[in-house]
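Budget justification note: compute hours in this period were largely spent on complex prediction jobs such as the one shown. Inputs:
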Amino acid sequence: MDLSSQLLQLLFSGLTLGSIYSLIALALVATYNITGVLNLAQGEFVALGALLAASIYAAGLPLAAAFLVSVALIAALGALIERSVIYPARESSALTLIIITVGLSISLRGLALLVWGTEPVSLPAFSSGGPLLLGGAFVNPQTLWILGMAAATTSGLYIFFELTYTGKAVRACVINRTAALLIGINPGTISLLAFAGSGAIGAAAGIFITPVTLATYDMGFMLGVKGFVAAAIGGMHNIRGAVLGGFILGILEVYSAGLISSGLKDAVALIVLLAALMLRPEGLLAISGRKV
Amino acid sequence: MKKIAFPVALILAFAGLPLLIKSNYLLGILIIIGLYAIIVIGLGILMGYAGQVSFGHAAFFGIGGYTVAVLTTACHWPSIAALIAALILPGLVAAIIGGPTLKLKELYLALATLAFGILVHILFNELKGITGGPSGLTGIPYFTVGGLVFDRDIRFYYLVWSAVLLVSLGVNNLIHSRVGRAMRAVRESEHASESVGIDTAALKLQAFVFSAVLAGLAGGLYAFYVTFISPSPFGFHTSVQFVLMAVVGGLGTFWGPLLGAGLVVALGEALRWATPLVIPGAGGEYQIIFFGAILMLVMIVKPGGLGAVMDLFKKSEEGEAH
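Corresponding output:
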């Protein structure tokens, strides 16, 4: 394979990985701006969604049903967590809240270990058939599923934010919580919605990548961290930036792993996060103006 | 008189403890509690006074340990010089990370330290030329100062707990000084402190660097104690355990770090013993479920921690005396 098709090949992998990071970052930034909670447990939703779907599928349900049931259950888990852990502490400082989400994250990971053990579980690819040849690069059909899902989720959320009444209420909360409260929007309900939505998005992302990467109890931790990297690239207050940041990170990671060293793949993301926070904490891509 | 009687009794109790404990296992646990307490004292200042949290203190602990390991084995530095380097290096690194992130109002330090902690753990494993990779470095000499060799657990016990005592007294003086008052003001209201001319960003940075220096001290002593070093004790879970210790003990209290380190280490040992009885075949990793749950519970129900309860007793005693 010549260099240009190799680069194209890596680009496809980067976009696949990047779309997963984008979705996680999107959920993180939305939750952060709505509730003020930097949810370090977001990655666990991804892992639990994937593991749960694999178990449901193994129990004999069709793949589509396993997907829907798992996404619904993790959304419910997100809502449950918001009511049981976040809501009682809603008046606490940001420091308290971030420590709570760390506790939540390690507890959920421990529970996943207890239920699923350390062995990776898998799901079949969503469509049968071998890799497709696209411009000299071989593309796994699952890649197209992932890109399609990311595009559908992002555009679905765009329509939700721009065109629906609830979506506008959420945006109002993002822009100014107190002002939203004054015009009769209940931030408690919106916060519940944010956590349920984060759960659903995380679970969907986890299920779509499982045929490619397999699922393990501890996959969520690094994915959550990558979501933060994407968010820091885009700026913690900018949903579009977070989505773009996810793709940038995915491509950067794949190229550095493919062309330099795979052992330091995770190190690249962490260095980007540190650099972003130290050099341009308002986001590498920060453009003043709209937040949503 | 009554006010100093309790601390003096406690110091005598700690000094006499090894005469009663004949088991090296228990002595080892007490040494580890002392080392963790030093880290948690620093973290407590960062969290309790500067209102910031670090999820990467295991990395500073590790940098201190590896500094001692590399300098004493590869460079043959004398132990006291290596220990001093183990204080300076984490402090410098903390200044570099904290400088830009602490100027911001938000909790970006939490994210930066999280990333830093994981990164350093990866580097401990990957930089095989310096750190020896996953198998680590062996052959660290015993801590030696002026002909006195700390080659037995009992000697090391006195070394570590003397360090705990010195750090505690130093910190106690610090929080009753001008800097301490400024820090408490920042904790109560950042805006108000700024309006009276306190440089809140500089103060938070000082607290962060100080906490990293203490973690480096504990790491250096740890390396001298176990005489070999590998990446495994310096991962993310260790950082979370330090936060747990600080929170359980109570932020901004004098006894909090000691209580927190003692309780969490004791709980960890108890869980290590009890979990296999409840869940057959379970390893030590399950204790992390309990740690996470306790962390959430304390933060929701009693964010002041147990130290706050202790201080309450103290206050009521003082009230009676008046």
